[in-house]
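Methods — Computational structure assignment.
A single polypeptide chain was analysed. Its primary sequence is given first, followed by the predicted tertiary structure written as structure tokens.
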Amino acid sequence: MNLSTTAVKTTAKTALKGHYLKSIIASVIYIFSVIVCLLCNNIFAYISIGFLYFVFLIAELIFIVIPLTLGFVYFTVRLIFGSDTEPVLIFKFFSSRKDYFRALRFSLSFIGNAIYSGFLLFLPSLFCDLIANGTVFKIFNSEIPLWVSSLWSVSAVLKVLAGIALITLMLKYYLAPFLIAADENMDPLEAMHMSKIVSTASKKDFVWLILSLIGYIIACLFVIPDIFIFPYFACCYCVHCRFAVAAYNRNVDKINLKDIPSFEVI
């Protein structure tokens, strides 16, 4: 699959015409809500131990941030499809029990996969840390060798490699939020499954799209406030996903194999 980043970005800019102000308002609501969650985390960090802080962070992601993110994607999907859009649509997955439970199913599955995969990937670095800080030797009541101090650098390298591997592994689910937002009848677990199938051919193009936006990302960090560029990022993501799904369905039609699943996103 070869999805042109130029075509994606051009289509995203076209979709934003006439809707830029609404998109900025939606971005302000979304970013402000996430910042409030981060502030709550910082406050909780002062009054709790590390483990409880981690649990609180995961709970915020599952019950607030991810459903809100799905709502922002839903707003952007309607925008690129030419439907009526209002900033309040970012609360779509808080508007009813059915929608909220859909969001929770995705949140729990996605975060669960990330935690499980992350634990396995970071296990070697964790073991190095236990040796480097002398915990293993204290358990066996033995002296700590001098060479143990060199394991800190090994642990740092293992953590970087594990982080890269985790991002690469979870990238297969990048289409799932779009699929959930585009098809209100699609089960979140089905969306994750379909994302794994479609992303096999499209995730490289998605990475290239992100790399092509590096200039905008740097501008967000140092020059331009996030709220002015975030709508463009969201549109690029949704347009790319729409192109990826359309390309997948065309390939299915070409080989004419009925046992390969296809789906509509409009």
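Note: Residues 11 and 239 are 7 Å apart (CA to CA).
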